[in-house]
TrEMBL record:
The lineage of its organism: Eukaryota, Metazoa, Spiralia, Lophotrochozoa, Mollusca. The chain crosses the membrane at residues 21-45. Belongs to the copper/topaquinone oxidase family. This is Amine oxidase. Its cofactor is Cu cation. The active site is at 396 (proton acceptor), 484 (schiff-base intermediate with substrate). It comes from Magallana gigas (Pacific oyster). The keyword Ion transport does not apply. One of its GO terms (biological process) is amine metabolic process. Contains 1 topaquinone per subunit.
Length: 786
């Protein structure tokens, strides 16, 4: 192309010798001049416009006295998550142990030894604030290559010379969480066997196939673990998994087909397709199902293949963008080494691979309030008439909650002006550390409502108005655990209160419509949204005025007193309310079940730390998410989460009780790895280091408006820690954002007392944007394979 074009220009140069060409050339030059003139005018106008906008400079990202440093430290402080460098060192160390025979992740199988997880072991509380404390990691290894397969947990000490520390712990092999190699193995086996044995029946029933299926595929979704205690085969290395089939069309959770296969695994053996469920009928095996089908002993189910959902992504005319927040003087907090510092608050944060979000060393104006505040477990128990819906009792740590804290989308998940922070962890599928980009966000947010305000026009000596906006500091992360998305946030208020909040979004799970109406309402052509609950357990290690704490309640009760002021003949009584302080001496006494008849405040304090009026300087724990666990105690999977029995339990803090649940909780019903009920004993809890275990929950009866993606309003629950006689007055009074209007004297004008009120003189700086996600698209969403 380029070459032939060159030859043509050569020819036209020779032709200019022709006189007629001069006329053409001058016309041509005239046109060029005109075009140039227009260009000059347009550029001049544009330049002028640009000059006008550029007078508004960009607001400072970070003010001079703050630091945002998101680099991994060389010498991580005690609460810092394992760094890339530390994870790499542990890998090298473990691979170098020849006797352990550890396989590379790419070659891992059920019958090999491979590393499942690495987790920071927190220092003993006594050593936590010493810089010389050695960092330690718990390394969980699945040892399927051993003659007697077992899960072993090793303690590794990250000294300059890395080494093992303490003794190892062995856990029964069949209690292990579901791993990716195992999961893939089971699904491949079940899908292949189903296709081979009953492929024709599936095609006839559901107009789709599991293999080579083009646009009409059958697949699986929302598998349900089936533990030995539920199957009634304890002590035999048994592990079951109900594998329900669905038509693969968005959202697949809502296209169930009432066909499921129970896969079982004994030790490290190949998974076996066991019991089969089809259209309300149970069969011993795939062959049994096929036999009975051929003998016309099965009532067939016919389901059309669902149509592609239509996404309305048309841009509306006159669309107006929603408001955004601006930080006119830059960020008012610092972040370094996973520690956030603001004018009021200081705390460290991290992500436990097993348990999810964790906060440490939470201080308000230097006062330690909480030593450790972390999610422990999420439980979701479904109900249904079919086996996979009914046995869907999830203990979410089975998939490692922390690993599913993924990239946050600016403008949706967190505001544009937030600071986005990466999370690093070890993954069973990689022999190098894995980083989830921008998985945590921190931001200050103006809630646009008063933190406090009062209008006193007739006050003495001067009428006044005083108030402050409710500006909060937020740390947020979101875990997508199969179908549900849980938004975890920690909200720090300027007045010394802090809130721990979780909201649910995502896609509801379903059963085929024949399971209704007892277990749910039909929400689309094929499915009922099945009844379930969501329970969350948090560890709150409070240190109020030191570690020596006591727990009391201020109960509100009826007070009946004689009415000495009545002139009636027969004496009458007056009814009002009174405060009755109740102290709790033991853990068992303090295991709390909410009772509407007994309103009370839950108070934590140090008995020797009184204010000048002799009130205990306390913090109050207020829950906005107490919920009744309906299932009876001791049945089915209920004993796996005894923490759902109590809305709050207060125990004496023990290093040997670091967590209320474990990643083994799904399958360890035969012999619990962690039994929370045993935390609650006759131990004294007066003047001791205390931990409050707080359970939040909701009952969820799905409705059509939970489709296509469940909205968050009404699905948010939280608990607050509130200062209670801890400070002499609201400790945020008089600080920065306060405004007071008053007269100085009878003749002076109304005066404004405020730090800075001038208008915005800068434009918001460039922030992380949705477009930035396109730079590494596959980190964010896998490419489609078909
Ligand atoms: C090491 O593990 C592999 C499986 O990953 C196994 O085939 C081999 O026998 C094991 N070697 C020893 C010495 O146990
Ligand atoms: C199973 O899948 C293969 C691949 O698509 C297909 O050829 C076969 O017909 C299917 N059904 C059976 C019964 O094997
Ligand atoms: C698993 O295998 C072991 C040893 O072969 C056997 O004793 C046990 O009964 C099996 N368990 C089940 C549930 O089949
Ligand atoms: C709730 O408290 C009331 C009043 O103390 C008591 O009568 C009732 O039995 C309690 N309910 C439960 C479920 O404990
Ligand atoms: C239960 O597990 C513990 C260790 O976690 C072990 O010492 C004990 O023997 C086990 N009990 C049974 C009945 O298997
Ligand atoms: Cu739900």
């Amino acid at each position: 192309m380029g070459e032939s074009y060159g030859i043509m220009t050569g020819r036209s140069v020779r032709k200019t010798k022709d006189p007629r060409c001069w006329q053409l050339l001058s016309l041509f030059l005239g046109i060029i001049c005109l075009i140039l003139l227009i260009t000059v005018i347009v550029l001049a106008v544009q330049k002028k416009e640009k000059e006008q906008t550029s007078t508004l400079y960009e607001c400072k990202q970070v003010s001079d006295q703050r630091i945002i440093d998101l680099r991994e430290p060389e010498n991580p402080p005690n609460f810092h998550d394992l760094t890339r460098n530390e994870i790499a060192r542990i890998f090298n160390f473990m691979f170098a142990q020849e006797t352990l025979n550890i396989t590379q992740p790419s070659k891992a199988s059920l019958g090999s030894n491979y590393i499942y997880a690495m987790e920071l072991i927190l220092p003993n509380k006594n050593d936590a604030f010493q810089s010389s404390t050695t960092r330690k990691s718990l390394v969980t290894v699945f040892e399927g290559a051993n003659p007697n397969p077992v899960v072993t947990e090793y303690c590794v000490e990250l000294k300059s010379q890395i080494q093992f520390c303490g003794s190892t712990r062995s856990i029964t092999f069949s209690f292990r969480p579901i791993t990716i190699p195992e999961y893939v193995f089971i699904l491949d086996t079940v899908i292949a066997e189903a296709n081979k044995t009953v492929g024709n029946i599936l095609k006839e029933s559901y107009h789709g196939t599991p293999i080579n299926c083009g646009k009409t595929c059958l697949g699986v979704e929302n598998v349900s673990p089936f533990a030995a205690v539920i199957a009634g085969v304890e002590g035999q290395n048994y592990r079951g998994l109900w594998v329900p089939f669905v038509q693969l069309m968005e959202p697949r959770n809502l296209h169930p087909v009432d066909f499921a296969v129970l896969a079982t695994i004994n030790g490290t053996s190949t998974p076996k397709a066991d019991t089969v469920w089809y259209n309300g009928q149970l069969f011993e095996s795939l062959d049994d199902f096929k036999d009975k089908w051929e003998k016309n002993q099965v009532s067939p189910l016919k389901i059309d293949f669902p149509k592609m959902p239509i996404h309305e992504d048309v841009i509306k005319e006159n669309y107006q963008r929603p408001p955004i927040e601006v930080e006119p003087d830059g960020k008012r907090y610092s972040i370094k080494d996973q520690t956030v510092t603001s004018d009021h608050w200081k705390f460290s944060f991290g992500i436990s691979p097993t348990h999810g979000p964790q906060l440490y060393d939470i201080r308000y104006k230097g006062n330690l309030i909480v030593y450790e505040l972390g999610l422990q477990e999420i439980c979701v128990f479904y109900s249904s008439s079919e086996p996979f819906g009914r046995f869907a009792n999830y203990f979410d740590s089975v998939v490692m909650i922390g690993h599913y804290m993924k990239t946050l989308v600016p403008g949706i998940d967190c505001p544009y002006h937030a600071t986005f922070i990466d999370a690093t962890f070890m993954s069973e599928t990689s022999n190098t550390p894995v980083t989830n980009k921008k998985a945590i966000c921190v931001f200050e947010h103006n809630t646009a409502s008063p933190l406090r305000r009062h209008h006193a026009p007739t006050e003495t000596p001067s009428g006044y108005f005083e108030g402050a906006p409710n500006v909060v500091l937020v740390l947020r992360m979101i875990a997508t655990l199969v179908n549900y998305d849980y938004i975890f946030e920690f909200i720090f208020y300027q007045n010394g209160a802090m809130e721990t909040k979780v909201s649910a979004s995502g896609i509801i799970a379903s059963s085929f419509k024949s399971a209704g109406p007892k277990y749910g309402f039909q929400v689309n052509d094929q499915a009922i949204g099945t009844l379930h609950n969501h329970f969350f357990n948090f560890k709150v290690d409070l240190d109020i005025g030191g570690t020596q704490n006591s727990y009391s309640t201020y109960n509100v009760e009826v007070d009946e007193v004689p009415n000495a002021f009545s002139k009636a003949d027969s004496s009458s009584n007056w009814f009002q309310e009174k405060i009755v302080k109740v102290d709790y001496a033991t853990e068992r006494e303090a295991a709390y079940m909410f009772n509407f008849s007994n309103p009370k405040y839950h108070i934590f304090y140090n008995e020797n730390n009184l204010d000048k009026y002799n009130n205990p300087k306390a913090y109050r724990l207020l829950s906005k998410g107490f919920v009744k666990k309906v299932l009876p105690e001791g049945v089915g999977n209920e004993p796996g989460s005894p923490w759902t029995r109590y809305q709050m339990a207060v125990t004496k803090r023990k290093e040997i009780e670091p967590h209320s649940s474990s990643k083994f909780a799904t399958y360890d019903g035969e012999n619990r790895t962690v039994n929370f009920e045993a935390f609650i004993g006759e131990e004294n809890i007066k003047n001791e280091d205390l931990v409050a275990w707080v359970t939040l929950g909701v009952h969820h009866i799905p409705r059509t408006e939970d489709l296509p993606i469940m909205p968050t309003p009404g699905n948010d629950i939280s608990f607050l820690l509130l200062p209670f006689n801890y400070f002499p007055e609201d400790p945020s009074v008089g600080t920065g954002d306060n405004i007071r209007l008053q007269y100085d004297n009878p003749s002076s004008p109304l005066k404004i007392m405020a730090q800075k009120l001038n208008d915005l003189t800068c434009k918001p700086p460039k922030t992380y944007s949705v477009e930035d996600l396109l730079k590494e698209p596959e980190m964010f969403i896998d490419r489609p394979t078909i």
